[in-house]
Amino acid sequence: MIERQLQIFAGELRRLRVLAGFQTGKEFAEHIGWIASKVSRIENARTLPADDDVDAWLAAVDADEEIAVRLRDELVDLRLERDRWKQQLRHGHSERQHGEAVAERDAARIVSVELFLVNGLVQVPAYARCVFELAAGMHATPADTDDAIRERIQRQDVLYDPGKQIEILIGESAFRYPICAAPVLRAQIDRLLNLIGLDHVRLGIVPIDTLLPTITMHGFTIHDDTVIVEVNHTELTVVEPDDVALYNDIVGRLWEVAAEGERARAVLQDVLGVLSPG
User: Fold this and answer.
1) Which one of 8, 55, 112, 263 has the minimum C-beta count within 10 Å?
2) Rounded distance, CA 15 to CA 89, Å?
3) pLDDT digits (tens, 9 = 90+) for 51-95
4) What's 106's DSSP letter?
5) Chain CA centroid to CA 78, Å
6) How wide is the angle at C-alpha 228 spanned by C-alphas 40 and 176, nearest 5°?
7) All domains of the chain, ordered by start, with CATH?
8) Which residues contact 259 (CB under 8 A, 6 or more apart)?
């Protein structure tokens, strides 16, 4: 579905280029200041262009305002369709995990906020298995669970990179409303206990009886100046500075009430104390 939509969008850009008098992509690339292969990738629907790319294209062909507005709206729709979980996970989870690993390696600052799940960067394999199996069932996508777990665990190498600034915020609700059996949750909590005090990683637990100083309706991750928001049906990428500032403000407010260090350890020990031995 998205492949056909992208081809139609690319064809419209090509049509505008020709109507503007640029008979070849190479000629247009020279005019716009791009390399020829970039124009070729866009016109052959191999690349979904960025907003700035489309703006530059429309300006170069002197597109009228009605066409420009329509194509910008279509670009938004294409990006939303591309980022839908059914589209992203059509080959399973492992490819997606590899992509996240690349983004994390490139980022200097990584912030992960989850109130109802343990964050992927600190999951143990058994907990990750529960996440991937539930997600594959929810979205009716291929279950490449073993490969996905392997990729997710490899991602965790960044926790030991002294060049990274990493912040992990987890809601106590992730343990009080678990997605896994007690033995798995015990192993997961043991992992978190071992991470408390780790250099370069700030780990916080938001206690379940805390009066929250802000509202967040979903989990999210920040890579430097980009926010990735995961909701049930799709993923959104946020780069607008004011919006990024909003998410950073939410993070700051949550840290005001999060338990860290020995307080975080106490919260986790309390959860362990009420878990069934099985």
Assistant:
1) 8
2) 32
3) 888 999 999 999 999 999 999 988 887 877 666 645 555 555 667
4) H
5) 17
6) 150
7) 2-83 (1.10.260.40), 93-274 (3.30.870)
8) 204, 205, 206, 207, 266, 267
Q: 28: exposed, middle or buried (C-beta count within 10 Å: 0-12, 13-18, 19+)?
A: buried
For residue 120, what is the DSSP state? G
**What pLDDT is recorded for position 278?**
55
- Residue 122, classified by CB atoms within 10 Å of its CB into exposed (0-12), middle (13-18) or buried (19+), is buried
- What is Dmax (Cα atoms) for the chain? 75
Question: Which of 21, 41, 39 shows the shortest CA–CA distance to 30?
Answer: 39
Q: Is 64 left (phi over 0), alpha (psi -120 to 50) or beta?
A: beta
Match 């503007």 to its residue by tokens.
20
Alpha helix (H) residue ranges in the chain:
2-19, 25-32, 36-43, 51-60, 65-83, 85-88, 94-106, 125-139, 145-155, 173-176, 182-195, 241-257, 261-274
Residue 246 CA to residue 238 CA, distance in Å, equals 11
d(CA 143, CA 186): 25
Q: Long-range contacts: 208-211, Cβ < 8 Å, 24+? A: 208/171, 208/172, 208/173, 208/176, 210/257, 211/257
* Mean pLDDT score, 158-168: 95
Tokens of 160: 């030991």
In this structure, the dihedral spanned by the alpha carbons of residues 101, 102, 103 and 106, taken in order and rounded to 10 degrees, is 120
Asked if the model's pLDDT at residue 206 lies above 90, the reply is: yes
Percentage, residues of the chain above pLDDT 70:
90
Retrieve residue 128's tokens.
Answer: 């990750």
Task: Write out the DSSP string of 201-226.
Answer: EEEEEE-TT---SS--SS-EEEETTE
Average pLDDT, the chain: 88
What's the confidence (pLDDT) of residue 62?
94
